[in-house]
Each structure stands twice: as structure tokens, then as C-alpha cells.
């Protein structure tokens, strides 16, 4: 019996609501040995107050030493084994903007980037070009035509856009074209198997035409392609946990992942405050709420320690509003760590806090890496967070006689 079958057999109806607040990339590192992380530096009186009545631990997104992408990181938090349920980023982005993928589609998450006269990347995100500017540039790419395939090009947010190829004989095993560093050119799309050669050839032709169209752009004069993916298939939250689940997020990728898990996308929030407004309005309509906060991750990726600290402090300000709703189980965690010191995702486990009347309170005084390392939850794989959430919400029965 796998974990999903076990949960199905043990789940019980109940009134206890669960809130999963994911501060993307919240885990960090000190800039100097012996110093404080971003989370430990931030002034977080509300999170610290919760730490005193809750229980903490460190969640491992995939396996020790493995650095996760955002997709696998969230899949683990949602209770899906990220090594079994693999969803490409392209499919996530497409679903997040409401694009209905078909079985013969391959979706690609693309980033505008800036390249110099030699074709070398100078900015991997085109200066995080504003969404309204980006949408206009995306519109130009809709002119691209390639024989034997239908092409859809749609804006996402800031420097991100989605390309979907629709046609027969398309595989999704194609390597990313983002070299993950500056000073080098965009890579060619390379098929990882025979079934994906056609997709790689189409992607190469798409990029060739796009570079010509983008030549006059100052910021977004090139693009990279990531996460080639076909439509995934996975069991829903209601099927697994018996929960009516809601997703409250700003960025499309996280909406896409939640929709594949069968969550209802609620509201059209553009800020954290609006997300909490949406949470309050939808409180009586759902059992489970996934609330996503992006900017701890993006500031970490920018290598900006102080700005990441500020984003954590912004998160702390909304905690009382969530706690006032009196969830049976309130979880604060991240999908992975994004230390400003590394300016990237990292392999480090993530501080995880559970607040519940059923929590066995530990000795923690603060929400942060050191307290979490000594906390009552210990180190655990993120895919077991949902069973913990169900149990702390009083929704799991006893196993065996």
C-alpha cells in the first residue's frame, strides 16, 4: 500500500480547515560563516509568536542534497512524490494562464533575455521587463509560422511567456536552452530521445525566427526555452484527501500546478494583501487553502539579502489575519531554499512550522532555520507534510485494529 492509498483508507470527514502558506524559497544562508540567515535576520514577531505555540522541523523537498525546481518543490508539499509525478514547467505555465492543453501538445516556458552584439546573454530575465511591455513583445512572436505544427504564443508575467506546439509525433524530452549564466549564448534545443527530435527541430526554427523579430528590442531581444512538457495526469486533492481545495496565488505557474492537483483557482490577486482578502472571502467555501507568496524567492535569486529580509517581514504582517480565521491546521513553509548568498535555489532543507491545537509544542522561540533544526518535527521529506496536515486538522483515523 502506498502513501496515497493509506491516506484514502484513513481519511475522515471533519470541519477542520487547513491553510498551507508557502513563502517561496524562504530558506536561506548567512552571508558569512556564523551569521544569521535572511529568515533569522528579519523582524517577525507574528511568526515567532506562532513558533511558541506550534511545532517546527526541516522539510527536505526531494532527497538530501538534491536541489529542487519550483514544480517538484510544490508537488512534494502537496503530498505527491516528486520523483514519481514529474510535471514540466511548460505545462505548469500553460495551465496557470488557463490554456487548455491537448494530448498532442508540448508546452514550453520561455524567458525573454538580453543578449549583446556577439549573441552572449547579458541579462537572463531581460531586466524583469514589466508585464505590459512583455505582452506587446509576445504579440510580435505570434507571427511565427512553421510547417506541420500549430503554434500558440501567450504572455505570462514579466519576462515569462508560454509557447505551445500542437501536432503529431511530438515528444517532450528536449533539453533547456537556458545556460543558467551570463556571458554565453543561448543553447540549441537538443532532443534527449528519438521521439523528441521533431520537437527540438521545431523549437530551433521557432528561436531562429524569434531572434529576427526581436532584433530591434532593447531589453527582450532574445529568449530561452525551459521545461518542455506534455499534459500530465495525476489524482486530485479531493480524490486523495477528500478535501475541497483552493489555490490563491499571483504567479501563473503556481496556479497551473494547483489546477493539475484539482484545486480551484480563487480570486485574481495581484498582491499579498489581496491574496489574504481573497482567503477571507472564500473561507466558508473550501476545506484546504494553498496561499503562495513569490517574492522571497525572487529576491533570493537576485542575490539581494536585504530585500529578501524585507519580503519576509512583509509576509509576517499578514499572519494575524490568517490566524484570526482560526484554521485547525496552519502551516508556514517554503517549496525550497533560495539563499541570497547563492542567488539560486539550493539543496538546503526548509523551515516548516505547524500550528494546531493538536500540535506537540517544542522549545522553539523563533521561526527560523536554527529553531527548526532542533524542532519536534525533525527532518522529514516534504511529501509527508500533507499527512501531518490532515492529522493535525483531525481528519485522519487510526491505522489497524
What's a quick, concise take on this entry?
This protein has 401 residues and is α/β, with parallel strands linked by helices. The protein folds into 2 domains: 3-85 and 234-392, Alkaline Phosphatase, subunit A; 92-229, no CATH class. The protein has 14 helices and 13 strands.
List its salient traits:
Alkaline Phosphatase, subunit A, single chain, alpha/beta, 2 domains
Describe this structure in words.
By secondary structure, this protein is of the alpha/beta class. It folds into two domains: 3-85 and 234-392, Alkaline Phosphatase, subunit A; 92-229, no CATH class. The chain has 14 helices and 13 strands. The chain has helices spanning 3-10, 38-41, 45-53, 70-77, 89-96, 131-141, 197-214, 237-241, 252-260, 272-282, 295-301, 305-323, 369-373, 385-392; strands at 18-23, 55-60, 105-115, 121-123, 150-157, 160-166, 222-229, 245-248, 264-265, 288-293, 329-333, 350-355, 378-381. An eight-stranded mixed β-sheet has the order 9-8-10-1-11-12-2-13, sandwiched between helices. Strands 3, 4, 5, 6 and 7 form a five-stranded antiparallel β-sheet that branches. Strand 8 (245-248), helix 9 (252-260) and strand 9 (264-265) form a beta-alpha-beta unit. Helix 5 (89-96) crosses helix 9 (252-260). It starts with a helix and ends in a 9-residue tail after the last helix. The model has no long low-confidence stretch (mean pLDDT 96).
